[in-house]
Every structure is written in structure tokens, then in C-alpha cells.
Amino acid sequence: MDDFLLSRFKYEKQFGDLVFSLKGEALAARQRAEKIAKQTAELKKKLNKVEYIEGIEVESYNKPFMGVTAYLNEFVDDKGKPLFPIFTPSEYWKRRRLYWKNGDLTVDYDPKTAAGAFTKEEKELIFGDEEPHRLSEDEMDIWQDIIEQKWK
């Protein structure tokens, strides 16, 4: 019954604390979610402008705009551990660079088998029509920066 009523917030005011007495972790998670919802609403109010491109309304927001990773980082348990897997760029690049350095150059990188050095997209970007070869640390730094800029 509580789950049903909790999923329909309009009933909370009607039934009050008798039905909606949340315990520790659930209460903390709900309070964090409400805080995030408020922050998100405030961000949406900070519209820079609304443009129409080919009849489609396009909104531009002031920076900083909260991305998905930052949003999900707010959801933690009572010990501060994230409730969702979080993308960590430093960890991603640490692993990618190991594959660039040690992976099999003859096959495309496959995350399921961990075979290969470069993904098909990385090969096209870095080597073009040339055969893939090992990159120096300086070359890896350059290509990491270029790829990170494409993400933005």
C-alpha cells in the first residue's frame, strides 16, 4: 500500500505521516531526489534564449548545465556510495591507453572479449587509411585530448 501511495505523491498530503513514515535510507534518498529536482527546475529557469531553427524550438541554457553523470552522482546510499555506476573519465582513459599500448593491432577492439587495441572509430580518426601502429605516450596524450574535445 505504501509503495502504491508513494508512487502517487498527490496522496501524501491527504494521508500524511500515518502512511508515509519512511525509514533511514529511503527517507535520505527521497530528500536527495527532491533537492536534485529543485536544482533541475532552477537550471531550467535560467534559459539564455529560445531560437527557432527551421520551425523547431531550440533552447540554450546558461552554463553550467548539469549533465547526467553529475545528476546521478547525487544519488548515494547512507555510506556515500553511488547508487548507479558512474562514468569516470580517468579510469576510462587508463584502460583505453593500456589497450592502445598492448592490444592486438590486427583486430578491432571488442569490449566483450577485450581483444584488439583500437575501436573502428579510433582507427578511422587516428590512422585514416594507414595501418594501425603503436602510439608513443605523447601521441596518446594528443589523441586523448582530441577525442575528449569531440565528447564536449
Question: In words, what does this structure look like?
Answer:
There is one protein chain. This protein is mostly helical and 152 residues long. The chain has two domains: 2-73, no CATH class; 89-151, no CATH class. It is built from seven helices and two strands. A two-stranded antiparallel sheet has the order 1-2. β1 (47-53) and β2 form a beta hairpin. Mean pLDDT is 76; it is low at 15-19.
Q: Summarize the biggest pleated sheet.
A: 2 strands, antiparallel
SSE pattern: HHHEEHHHH
Supply Rg: 23 Å
Count of β-strands: 2
Spans with pLDDT under 50 lasting ≥5 residues? 15-19
Instruction: Average the pLDDT over all residues and give the rounded result.
Output: 76
Number of domains: 2
Q: Structural class of the helix and strand makeup? A: mainly alpha
**Terminal Cα span:** 45 Å
How much helicity do the residues have? 40-55%
Shape: flat
Strand order of the largest sheet: 1-2
Strand content: 5-15%
Tally of DSSP helical segments: 7
